[in-house]
Specification:
Rossmann fold; Arc Repressor Mutant, subunit A; 2 domains; five-stranded parallel beta sheet; 10 helices; 55% helix; 12% strand; globular
Length: 204
């Protein structure tokens, strides 16, 4: 990884911020850490191009509000959000606003580093985004109607129990469909599954 690749880490938790900074610096990224979204925005005008990693739930301005503020300012830097399990609907909403990935806590170092590599690669290569959408559409085409309905529920941020009630099936059956979805879409995580669905666009 080139040493000039810059990552902005935004998290109100000192321990998370420091451990992320240590991990990224060890991987040869230049890291700038901020304790709040507003602190980062105050320095945005002088910021070098890079990638942003932000917690989705923070006091004051949330990660989602930060993403919207960045969009309003025309900031093209890719954003990765970190989310707790209960914040998945918020993270999905952030992806609809243009976030490139969300990663659930607790996360492995490889998950963060892999997501960063993908984010930098996509921001450099427009054709990679076209290829990603084509591949996502191809995998979506392999899904059954019921599997696609379960996927739509997950993308909407619904829990398995809610999807089960809406489709008139048991939560256990939803889990089976969800496992099938992960396999057919070749998704290693919920975030990857949701990202592919959003990249492909709305179902017809």
């Amino acid at each position: 990884m080139a040493t000039e690749a810059v990552v902005y880490v935004i998290d109100d938790d000192d321990a998370v911020r420091e451990s992320l900074a240590f991990l990224l610096e060890t991987a040869d990224y230049a890291v700038h850490a901020y304790e709040s979204a507003t602190a980062f925005l105050s320095k945005l005008d002088k910021a070098e191009p890079g990638c942003i990693i932000t917690d989705v739930r923070m006091p004051g301005m949330s990660g989602l509000e930060l993403v919207r503020a960045l969009n309003e300012r025309g900031c093209a830097m890719p954003v990765i959000v970190i989310t707790g399990h209960g914040d998945v609907p918020l993270a999905v909403e952030a992806m609809r606003e243009g976030v490139v990935d969300f990663i659930e806590k607790p996360f492995a170092d490889d998950a963060i580093l892999g997501s960063l590599q993908n984010a930098f690669a996509r921001s450099r290569d427009q054709s990679a985004q076209v290829g990603e959408r084509t591949e996502a559409l191809k995998r979506l085409a392999s899904l059954s109607t019921r599997e696609r309905q379960v996927l739509d529920g997950l993308v909407a941020g619904q829990a398995n129990k809610v999807i089960a009630i809406e489709l008139g099936i048991s939560p256990r059956t939803v889990e089976v469909y969800r496992a099938n979805l992960m396999s057919k879409m070749r998704a290693a995580s919920l975030s990857e599954l949701v990202r592919m669905a959003l990249v492909a666009g709305p179902s017809r």
